[in-house]
Amino acid sequence: MTLTSKQRADLRAQAHHLSVAAHVGHQGITDSVRQTLEDALKNHELVKVQFSKNTAATPKQAANDLAAAVTAEVVQAIGRTATLYRAKPTRSE
């Protein structure tokens, strides 16, 4: 699932008004952070994540690692905040 630049721009506009759904602390990406993000992505396709100042990796690298862990796409990473997107699976009945 690769986003086009137009899709990415639309998602950035939608994410502007969202509040942060998950926080990554100094311990980095833990199982509880992954689970919180999984739950958020199941309910909402678009989720903001905030990284602590004490995170070992850069916020952009941490966002990429987190997106890979939950099978999502990084929409943007600005400062210590990243926005992740994962489309809800469609039901084929």
Strand content: 15-25%
Percent range for helical residues?
25-40%
Strand order of the largest sheet: 1-2-4-3
How do the helices and strands follow one another from N- to C-terminus?
A: HEHEHEE
CATH topology: Translation Initiation Factor IF3
Number of helices: 3
**Tally of distinct domains:** 1
Estimate the mean pLDDT confidence. Answer: 89
Q: Identify the CATH architecture.
A: 2-Layer Sandwich
Shape: globular
**Number of beta-strand segments:** 4
N-C termini distance: 22 Å
Q: List unreliable stretches of 5+ residues.
A: none
Secondary structure category: alpha+beta
> What top-tier CATH class fits best?
Alpha Beta
Outline the biggest β-sheet: 4 strands, mixed
CATH 4th-level superfamily: YhbY-like
Cα gyration radius (Å): 13 Å
What does this structure look like?
The chain has helices at 5-15, 31-43, 59-70; strands at residues 20-24, 46-51, 73-78, 81-85. By secondary structure, the protein is α+β, with helices and mostly antiparallel strands. The protein has a single domain (5-85), classed as Translation Initiation Factor IF3, CATH 3.30.110.60. It has a 4-stranded mixed beta sheet, sandwiched between helices.
